[in-house]
């Protein structure tokens, strides 16, 4: 097993499949009366969050607690970070406390990689800037596999603000590793430079892609990372790239609609779609706990 999970590229097909299979076992155990497993008793997991998060932070916390680990939650607000303490000094403090795993979210792309050089424990990237979010890609793959029965050969459309999305980057990488075919759908202004080198196709035309998609993954328009106008207006964006009911009706019967959350309802996704039986949005959150249990277990379990 690998020591850190910094990028979806750290996972080859066998390792990624092992994580998904382990997550499935975790999910079946969670269905039993005793939700807690003793697997990580005596180990310490630190959640180090320098950026706002709802789902990911509580998901890692729940995962670590269900494995009986001790959990320390650190958020940059209210810590010495606001006094200008560097990531390195914070890392050394965590090291001194004996963290076995550090789960880190940071606005700077590459911060988890740097942290991995400074601490002895395992580092899990919980989202770094616009770069990567590997456990989100794993929980998305898990959700696709459990709804559709397989990943190899699936047509997956990832739609919207690809430019700012670490979710898209990690998903493209992992889905490619697992044999799915990804098409990125976005206005030209929201596709990154160099996207041609990614293992994915691209399209500007959502309506052309919908009828052949097994999975449509909508991305949040990330206003907080936009310092200029990337599209004419919200209405225009929603009309061309929003997933609405008429588009949902043109999907194949078995297809699912995903979103990592948080959603801009009415912008990239219509409320009727988000709340429809095709939507896996709530399932993704539930699956996230099982997948993060599997990741922590596999990274730490062998080192007792
Ligand atoms: C995503 C993130 O933070 O990258 N959300 C998440 O982890 N569930 C996507 C987003 O913020 O739009």
TrEMBL record:
Function: Catalyzes the condensation of carbamoyl phosphate and aspartate to form carbamoyl aspartate and inorganic phosphate, the committed step in the de novo pyrimidine nucleotide biosynthesis pathway.
Binding residue positions for L-aspartate: 83, 166, 220
Ranges of residues in domain Aspartate/ornithine carbamoyltransferase carbamoyl-P binding: 3-145
Its EC number(s): 2.1.3.2
Domain spans labelled Aspartate/ornithine carbamoyltransferase Asp/Orn-binding: 153-299
Keyword Protein transport tagged: no
Native organism: Dactylosporangium aurantiacum
Name of this protein: Aspartate carbamoyltransferase
The entry's keywords: Pyrimidine biosynthesis, Transferase
A Pfam family matched in the record: OTCace
Gene that this sequence comes from: pyrB
GO molecular function, one term: amino acid binding
